Amino acid sequence: MDSALFVVISLIGISTVVVVGDVMYVGFWYYIALPAVAYLLAITIKPKPLFLTAVSFAILATYIPYFYHNLFTEHPEGLLGLGHLLSLPGLAVGIVLTGLWLKSSALNPFGIFAVGSTGVFAGFLINQFIVCNSVMYCGNLTWPFGLLSGG
After folding, report:
1. Max CA pair span of the chain
2. How far is 123 from 90, CA to CA, in rounded Å?
3. Nearest Cα to 123, choosing from 104, 107, 99?
4. Cα 75 to Cα 33: distance, rounded to the nearest angstrom
5. CB 113 within 8 A of CB 50
6. Domain-located, residue 136
7. Would 75 be classed as within a structural domain?
8. Which of 17, 26, 85, 128 is the most exposed place for a label (fewest CB within 10 A)?
9. What's the whole-model pTM score?
10. Residue 56 confidence class, pLDDT cut points 50, 70, 90
11. Cα 148 from chain centroid?
């Protein structure tokens, strides 16, 4: 059931791109490949129930600020998707570390979902924080008040 929920939640992101368009300008393949690679990475650690669902939920949550920014701004940024792409190593680390930690925990499946989605999303956000304040400018997604970027 966990794999089925993973697919359903991933299809929500893919169908959003089909209906709204590729607002991150990364190509349709990206929205298919990202969940597929995340699934393969997560399944290798033999996760507990609802961890795969948590991973797909966290991936879907990473799209929201990018979609919102480029859909509702006067000047959409064409390279904003690069910030998402460069933040994926943090997502991968979040999947592995959270998945391994949850294997030894005694949480119920909904606790696994909550901690799993939070851990995976936190890995992405930490990586994005570093990328958007050192390597590239991510527009409104850069850390508030430009604390590290001098802005």
Report:
1. 48
2. 5
3. 99
4. 27
5. yes
6. yes
7. yes
8. 85
9. 0.88
10. very high
11. 23
